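Batch job 17 of 40 flagged for manual review because the log was empty.
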Amino acid sequence: MKRILAVDDSTMNLKLVENMIKGEYQLELLGSGFDALAYLENNTVDLVLLDLLMPEMDGMETYDRLRELENGKNVPVIFLTADTDIESEITCLKKGASDFVRKPFMPEVMRNRIRRVLELDELTHYLERKVMEKTAQIEKMTFETIATISSMLEARDSYTKGHSVRVAEYSVMLAERAGWREQAILNLQHIALLHDIGKVGIPDHVLNKPGKLTEEEFAIIKSHTIIGADILKEIKSIPEIEAGARYHHERYNGTGYPCGLAAEEIPAVARIIGIADAFDAMNSKRIYRDSLSSEVIRKELVNGKGTQFDPYFLDIFLQLFDEGKLRRRKESE
């Protein structure tokens, strides 16, 4: 049964409301705005019937303070008043009130208004749930599609298998610890999964060369940032996805590539991915070397603070490292 809170300084008016709708709804009858706010601190309701003209705290002030409460910010409100001033009605509706009922109350009008507002509120919540469900489905499909693309790209080299998934995992952990919002973290995850997509344009004999690269070959490798950015530039649904591919090899002191950006010029997503990318490279076996020890990896990370890596994000990453949150890669992975 729906719960309605009726607030009016007139006991007679509260009794009228009770007689009109008793049996249809669970009712709570209170005589002041102060009592209503105190009640909503610990209770939820489906609708508030709020008298506009009350002593000490009128309906307008009660409404404003009600919207500041967790249990009151979304609850529909119908104003009740004997005031015939049309401006009052306009003001209430502009504030976000669901309806406006004038005194003396007409039983059938009151019941219909209440029923209409509750049905509309229920429909709104239903649609919001459906939108959230559909959004979650789309996000799941997006993640799975991006992860599949990433895995297909990395299938060219067994030594980098799973690299982008791990970089995404470490990037998300860092952003969560840094207090990023949920949507920004989800975007970062997608960006990190595709940060190396430009390697699709690098020839195998260069990408998988076991020995030292020539200057010409290294220039080809570096071009994967530009290729990746060009591939991703038309994707508008994930903010900064192009920046992640283009700038994840920039260095904090301005000596990176492809643009030589420094410090805050480098987008935050790229600064985070750059740390996660470097960590996973050191933490993984490569065609030309074994994975490095934890001691060596930590030393290399610290040595890169303020030169290769953003100091703020690196300090957070080192916290995760020291807490054992960053897994050592198994040779079978």
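Reviewer: the log was empty due to a logging misconfiguration, but the result itself is present. The chain is about 55% helix and 5% strand. Unflagging and moving on to job 18.
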